[in-house]
Amino acid sequence: MQTGMHADRERCVRAVQSKDARFDGWFFTAVTTTRIYCRPSCPVVPPKPGNMTFYPSAAACQQAGFRACKRCRPDTSPGSPEWNQRADLVARAMRLIADGVVDRDGVPGLAARLGYSTRQVERQLLAELGAGPLALARAQRAQTARLLIETTPLPMAEIAFAAGFSSIRTFNDTVREVFALPPSELRARVPKKNSAAATPGALSLRLPFRAPLNPDNLFGHLAATAVPGVEEWRDGAYRRTLRLPYGHGIVALAPRPDHIACRLTLSDLRDLTVAISRCRRLLDLDADPVAVDDQLRADPLLAPLVDKAPGRRVPRTVDEAEFAVRAVLGQQVSTAAARTHAARLVTAHGRPVDDPEGGLTHLFPSPEELAALDPETLAMPRTRRTTFTTLVRQLADGSLHLGVESDWAETRARLLDLPGFGPWTVDVIAMRALGDPDAFLPTDLGIRRAAQELGLPSTPAALTARAAAWRPWRAYAVQYLWATDSHPINFLPV
To answer: Is 105 annotated as catalytic?
Structure first.
């Protein structure tokens, strides 16, 4: 069993006494005298060390009978970076729970997606997180309920079902138990000026992150590669359409000094938890930038790049299958040409959506929709056409699955077996779609050019050998190396 940070009592006590926000989400502090649990950076006077108990999850605190602090609101902490830097069963399960799988398919559905028995999944989660999948999903439902209570004028009955509760009574009991307030009082505590406009389905949220966060390459990459109709940069925000389990949505994400401003319009509010999870994943908001940058800084040739603009994130995706298709469209062509190819597919095969602000017109077509198209209509070389049609056919029939629960090594091997899939395509999918923080692109032209300019080895084999010291954060090293170029992906749009 892997031991989390919560087991290092001395380190946890130091983090709480110094109110260190870097550790928010890594562990939770339960105070035995008050029966309240907090994030490490809680602004109140720290309790005596003898009264502190540490848990790896909010769900474990709740199961032990503690309620959430009203000052520091521990349920709004960034997620633990553990789940995005590991590919074992527990990490994959946590990513699926965040994606709402337990609410939609129950624990048997979670276990089936992971390829394990329900008993194995429950045992491992309980051993490492102090709570099983149902308790973890319940904690997430409580967090979603609080968000809806505080940011929308929706009736409580609608909020209960939108947050995933099976009954209004369960909703009321859970909110009282977790937050020590009934839903109506929770809403009454919100200042009127902070209330969102009463537009059905529209929400304005703050997505927290661990500082520092450099938005330049993150939003620059998303804006420079945006597919017309599906994505756009407008008024300082990246906007895109979302395909979700119960419907669709449109999100606008804008960088702020201490959070990401998120405006969501959903056709079905039951998709809120999933939409938030996917937006956080897209922007890599649960990363631990201090740990990443400290390790990369140890290389004297990378240190100046890190010191110049720390906190770079890996731009990821809200839809793994969509990204894989776009990676194939982008093989051996410019960014502009890849956008053109993708825009044609969207116009011809994407599902139309209404955007109240205009600009966005379609959802990116699903693998099933793309598998039904006539290959002869694709304006690309025959070999790439074969690569494209093989990929979408396997995604559509389920013989290849790309998702938050994917085993990174196994999926890499499956992708390499496809015609036209070389190391660059597989690793860019591993980095941006699967979320592997150690994916590396030694054959990428931009990486080789940066390596040569910095005095790093420029041949793929020699560069890979040098990059061993950057593990397990080579995907972040890629962002710093790319940033040496003047390509638009490296700059926040103006």
So the answer is: no
**267-294 in b/e burial notation, b at 16+ Cβ within 10 A?**
bebbbbbbbbbbbbbbbbbbbbbeebbe
Cα angle 153, 158, 161 (rounded to 5 degrees) comes to 135
> Any catalytic annotation for residue 235?
no
CB hemisphere CA count around 417 (13 angstroms): 9
Supply the pTM of this predicted model. Answer: 0.91
Cα gap 55→45, rounded to integer Å: 20
Name the token pair of 477. Answer: 């090293």
Q: How far apart are CA 464 and CA 452, in angstroms?
A: 14
Q: Answer for the pair 455, 467: CB distance below 8 angstroms, yes or no.
A: no
φ, ψ of residue 366 to 5 degrees: the values are -75, 165
- Out of 38, 42, 69, 279, the active site residue is 38
User: ∠ CA(216), CA(218), CA(222), 5° rounding?
Assistant: 115
Burial annotation 244-259 (CB, 10 A radius, 16+ → b, else e) = bebebbbbbbbbeeeb
Alpha-carbon span 83 to 436, nearest angstrom: 11
- Quick one: how far is CA 298 from the chain centroid? 27
470 DSSP 8-state letter: G
- The single residue of 271, 427, 436, 444 carrying the catalytic annotation is 444
Residues in CB range of 211: below 8 A, 6 or more apart: 21, 22, 258, 289, 311
pLDDT, tens only, 98-123: 999 999 999 999 999 999 999 999 99
Helix (H, G, I), strand (E, B) or coil at 456: coil
Average pLDDT over residues 10-35: 93
pLDDT at 198 over 70: no
Alpha-carbon distance 135 to 65, whole Å? 12
How does the average pLDDT of the chain come out, rounded? 92
CA-to-CA distance for 306 and 444, rounded, in angstroms?
Answer: 20
State how far the Cα of 78 lies from the Cα of 21, in Å rounded to an integer: 10
Report yes or no: 205 and 151 within 8 Å, Cβ to Cβ: yes
Q: What are the residues whose beta carbons fall under 8 Å from the beta carbon of 403, sequence distance 6 or more?
A: 96, 113, 320
